[in-house]
Model the fold of this input.
Amino acid sequence: MSSISRALALQISHPDVLGSYLSSNPSDQLLPRIAKMAVVGDSLQVANIETLALAFFISSGGTADASATTYAVAARQFPIRRIATRVEVNGDIAQNVSMVNDVFEQQIQAKMIAMWNAVGDKLINGTGSDPEPAGLVTLAAENADSFSNAGANLTLAKLDEMIRLFRPWDGDTQRAFVMNRGRYAKFIALCHAAGFDPAIMPDRILGKPLAHYMGVPVLVSDFITDTETLTTTSVYLACLGTREGEPQFGGLVWFYNRDTGPGIRVDGPHRTSGTTDLLFSTLELNIGFASLSTGSVLRMSSVGLS
Done:
């Protein structure tokens, strides 16, 4: 980032400016609902182990089956990805302690919002290829039950189908629909047309009430676009969180290195010793997303917009 001018610094050094970049901040109810998982090293590896064995009913006095048990192991690896940004101010601004504090505070907050927005975008659209983490689009591609709606509009019957197709699920781990605000408005309209209001229940993590369908909360993410394939979008059903001791029932997780932590780290401010007199801070975030089973994320793609 190039250093900021004194004229702009004088504008930023004013309390009313804080709302200017928050007012258009996109909605993302999914990111704060994902369970965090600390890992050692720079990646999370998930080994899908399917026990291949034989077992039979036997008659009284019969011989117990002693056939060998084999394992089919296919490891899936999810690397931690990195966002790094830098905030700079000119040295002459730094002579005014009040101004430089305001400027750094405003820029750092704006940069943090930009970093979390980048995370929210890749949580949905990340390809998993360096430097992006894997997002729902990529994780849902592993699920053989993900399907296309072939451009047709959203219906409650299709949401019912997603619930029916979702597996593995034993009734314990939290599930959630994820859609953009346009499809959310359509969902509410479909409920009203069918003669009922969706259940509104408080969410203990978000601290606000959420609409539910068939007991499943509905989350909104503005990072799901209406232009995925021409003018269509997607709706997701995801399992959220881990299952201690039963990872096969676990779902979508946010993982991080336990030494660096899950949040944004700010280093500085520092002053350069070069010809250009600058005061700067660096911001860094290490993060990754993974699905603990290939069935953790189900996608209905090519959903019409009417």
Helices lie at 6-12, 91-94, 97-125, 136-140, 156-165, 181-193. The mean pLDDT is 85. The two ends are 42 Å apart (CA to CA).
